[in-house]
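Dear V.,

Thank you for sending over the compound details. I've combined the ligand you provided, 1-deoxy-D-xylulose-5-phosphate, with the protein sequence from our construct and run the structure prediction for the complex. I'm sharing the raw inputs here so there's no ambiguity about protonation or stereochemistry in the SMILES, which I know was a concern on your side last time.
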Amino acid sequence: MSDLLTIAGRSFRSRLMVGTGKFSSSSAMVAALEASGAEIVTVALRRVDLHNPQDDMLAHIDRQKYLLLPNTSGARDAEEAVRLARLARAAGCEPWVKLEVTPDPYYLLPDPVETLKAAEILVREGFTVLPYINADPVLAKHLQEAGTATVMPLGAPIGTNRGVRTRDQLAIIIEQAIVPVVVDAGLGAPSHAAEAMELGADAVLVNTALAVARDPGAMGAAFRKAVEAGREGYLAGLGEERSQAEASSPLTGFLRNED
Ligand SMILES: CC(=O)[C@@H](O)[C@H](O)COP(=O)(O)O
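Below is the predicted structure of the protein with 1-deoxy-D-xylulose-5-phosphate bound, written out as structure tokens.
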């Protein structure tokens, strides 16, 4: 039986989304995308010319194969984010947007107030909104009530490769979610992606780990397997953590009885 990820009524086999920044070459990016099995690929609106099909990056992304998810990376407030999303739609992109509002260039942490404000506007305008947020369960609820198609809480700040540092808050978001939860940012190793999936995330988004790998294609394949393994582990039902040891084999009834 297939285990599909469904976002806003659209289904995907892959639970790994991939970002397109920081790759050393277009061929490295294509190798990573293909090996990852991703079906959703995010592109920073500030880095591409959507009106130009020959744009170096866009020309390398097969839009029959991948859903192009424009992101508002670089937007510092709601107004800038909304403007970027509208530009993407005007240029012929599907009305899906990865909403990112990051006023602070040092930590790139998302602004919760401006993100919610932008999400409310974009949902009203008919966009399918996938907001990047800190791992804040209260904000995640507000965004879902506003009509976002997912929530995308961070594992760690963008580009840090530090893994699932927000585990406890992610668990609450996942427990309460009524839309898919996509753990986005900071996942620097395949094991990080597996951990997020084992926790019950519906999908993950990865960019830096693939882009900076010595072999981005091989890393794409490794993340693909990790996401699948994490998902399978989650569905199989993981055992609960315990503080006290519990023997896996009987501890009585042998050796001493033979005296
Ligand atoms: C590409 C994208 O949409 C970002 O949110 C982010 O870049 C992903 O995080 P990492 O680069 O840390 O994987």
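A first observation: DSSP finds eight helices and ten strands in the chain.

Warm regards,
I. M.
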